[in-house]
Amino acid sequence: MTALQIIFILVAAATLGAGLMVVTSRNLIHSALWLVVALFGVAVFYVLLQAGFLAVAQVVVYIGAIAILIIFAIMLTRRIMDEDSPTFNANWGWAVFVALIIFGALTWVLTSWPGISQPMAELSERSDPLRQLGAALVSPSLYVLPFELASVLLLAALVGAIFISWERK
To answer: What is the pLDDT of residue 164?
Structure first.
């Protein structure tokens, strides 16, 4: 085993462990801090893949902005939440079932749908990784739809956070 493989295995274990702690921790602040650890692990993966720009963007955007925004939102809405409420509701089994179905469908689409790998082959002909990323984000056959959906989702989360923390008179 090379040193890079050992580093990858250690970072993968730490990232998966942090991700597990995000969803199993009972304290929301602890979950948010575990999210920071998981996002930092993803940044280390980008460094191992020699994608320095994406690693810096991961740290600045996700850890520096999104995670801190989540922590502030938790702190602002803490008084609204009931501390004694259960962490699981009665429908958690259905949620796991639906999540597995969606995961399976997405896996099937990404692995067997005709024409998915063809646009990636076009991008691999170019040499500059930043050009590849830029072309992939605006290409109609690649990531423009998920990119726009993520922006709408973040906007909805922002509006929801404002609505929840709004002082009612």
So the answer is: 77
Q: Would you call 90 exposed, middle or buried from its count of C-beta atoms within 10 A (0-12, 13-18, 19+)?
A: exposed
How far is residue 118's CA from residue 102's CA, in Å, rounded to a whole number? 24
- 14 contacts 37 by C-beta, under 8 angstroms: yes
> 32: buried, middle or exposed (CB in 10 Å: 19+, 13-18, 0-12)?
buried
Residue 30 domain-assigned? yes
pLDDT of residue 37: 92
What is the separation of C-alpha 12 from the centre of its chain, rounded to a whole number of angstroms?
Answer: 15
The whole domain housing 80 covers 1-87
3-state SS, 81-101, equals CCCCCCCCCCCHHHHHHHHHH
CA distances from 32 to 37, 109, 151 (A): 9, 31, 21
CATH of the domain at 71: 1.20.120.1200
Tokens of 87: 């962490």
Cβ 29 vs Cβ 71: under 8 Å: yes
* pTM above threshold 0.70: no
Please list, in sequence order, all residues whose beta carbon lies within 8 angstroms of the beta carbon of residue 53, skipping any fewer than 6 positions away. Answer: 129, 130, 133
Per-10-residue mean pLDDT of the chain, 169 residues long, equals 88 93 85 89 88 83 81 70 61 82 78 58 59 72 74 83 74
